[in-house]
UniProtKB/TrEMBL annotation:
Name listed for the protein in its UniProt record: Glycoamylase-like domain-containing protein
Organism: Photobacterium gaetbulicola Gung47
Length: 440
């Protein structure tokens, strides 16, 4: 059964020993009224022995759940690790001293993992407590940027702390980020003035495509590449971000004309994941394109009685890039076939909490009412379709997005603190001025 919520005083630490995390909770204001236990259930995914490997100190990518039985899959990507670190930071701020111990342990695991020019591979197998790259040797820009911003949030939370473990975490994060500079420099392609999507260590060559869309979960990569290489001998110019394209669509909903931002697949997370780390409401010149995208997703979900639509597990436990066709650039601009919008995923609805909190909670509650079996003891199952079929998977990435959507105001501020401390926040604001549609 889900754990009872316990809001700890700052002096309280976990009842577990300092090397194991068997209890997590958040500060009271993070629990929405009427959704307290549901958020806690999803948070409990990140307990040792549930969604986290006790030896490697990182989350499992995938957890199959049957009743109270779990079957973890021993691999992970670094976006998942970053979200886990953000959750641990918030648990520590609620008094869980063991969470700070774990942050340092996880940073040590990261620092000891094999890398390419400091950048991390995707995915890593979890082998006897260590991270081992798979044979393909893929080095993705997207996951490295997500991890980087997650690390800046952890660092920003601890800048003023006198706790020796907090000071140690800040130092480890700085070391990890600094050693990645050569990798970011090598991913920049000056002829196209864009960032490669990544590198293949197996082929000793960049991946054959670029990060060329702003309405994509990868948009933080050229942004971070610019910020971290600024002042070096080979800086990645801000134009690598500015040159990415952005498109909106047009539709009418309840008599209102909307201009929703188009993500490639029509997947909600493609538009929203970066907002966990950056307060894009204050950065994007016209945030209504995000609000309109959210309205289209909400209408689609209410009509089909499923959560918001995004890349997720299928109900037969595969994986697909699901999306709403009306807000898919591939479908709207190029008339390409996409996976479609008949399967929803709870984490996508949770992401909308960053846009419209009351509507997000109301929709999550209605999903639970329509599909009561969607809640496992360790979090909400990853997908449900229009026929009521359900996945038996919990995916760490999606669990992390689910929980961190409710923590975003704090995480945003932690990243802002870090960037201001490093003198980079004005650059961030300047770069985001280019977040305007190419077709308007």
């Amino acid at each position: 059964m889900p754990h009872n919520i316990q809001v700890l005083s700052p002096s309280h630490s976990c009842r577990s020993n300092s090397d194991k995390v068997t209890e997590l909770s958040l500060r009271k204001h993070f629990y929405p009224s009427g959704f307290e236990q549901e958020l806690q259930t999803n948070l409990d995914f990140f307990l040792d022995g549930v969604g986290v490997d006790e030896q490697a100190k990182v989350p499992f990518d995938t957890l199959f759940v049957a009743g109270s039985d779990i079957d973890p899959q021993y691999y992970v990507n670094t976006t998942e690790i970053g979200l886990y670190l953000n959750i641990l930071t918030e648990a520590y701020l609620n008094g869980h001293q063991a969470a700070l111990v774990r942050i340092n342990q996880t940073l040590d695991v990261l620092f000891g993992a094999p890398t390419w020019n400091g950048l991390f591979y995707w995915p890593y197998d979890i082998v006897e407590g260590q991270l081992k790259p798979q044979e393909e040797g893929i080095v993705p820009a997207v996951d490295n940027a997500n991890l980087a911003f997650a690390l800046t949030a952890v660092s920003g939370a601890f800048f003023d702390s006198a706790d020796a473990l907090a000071v140690s975490a800040v130092k480890k994060i700085d070391d990890i980020l600094q050693r990645q500079i050569p990798g970011w420099q090598q991913l920049y392609e000056p002829t196209r003035d864009l960032l490669y999507a990544g590198w293949s260590a197996k082929d000793s060559a960049p991946l054959g495509y670029y990060i060329d869309r702003k309405a994509n979960e990868s948009r933080l990569a050229p942004l971070w590449a610019h910020l971290i290489t600024k002042g070096t001998s080979s800086p990645v110019p801000k134009s690598a971000f500015e040159n990415m394209e952005l498109y909106t669509g047009t539709c009418v909903l309840n008599g209102q004309k909307l201009r929703p931002m188009l993500t490639w697949d029509g997947a909600y997370f493609q538009g929203m994941l970066p907002a966990i780390w950056l307060n894009e409401r204050c950065l994007i010149p016209d945030y209504s394109i995000i609000e309109d995208m959210t309205k289209v997703q909400q209408a689609h979900s209410e009509q089909n009685k499923i959560p918001f639509v995004s890349s997720a597990a299928t109900t037969d436990d595969s994986y697909a890039a699901f999306g709403v066709p009306a807000i898919s650039e591939a479908a709207v601009r190029f008339e390409l076939q996409i996976a479609g919008g008949n399967t929803g995923t709870p984490h996508a609805t949770a992401l909308s909490f960053m846009v419209n909190p009351p509507d997000a909670i109301a929709h999550l509650q209605s999903i639970k009412q329509l599909h009561p079996d969607i809640e496992s003891p360790y979090g909400w199952f990853d997908a449900v379709d229009t026929k009521g079929n359900m996945s038996s998977k919990l995916i760490s990435l999606d669990q992390g997005m689910f929980v961190c959507s409710f923590l975003a105001t704090s995480i945003n501020q932690q990243v802002k603190t870090y960037l201001k401390h490093k003198g980079l926040y004005p650059d961030l604001k300047d770069i985001y001025k280019s977040f305007t549609p190419n077709n308007e």
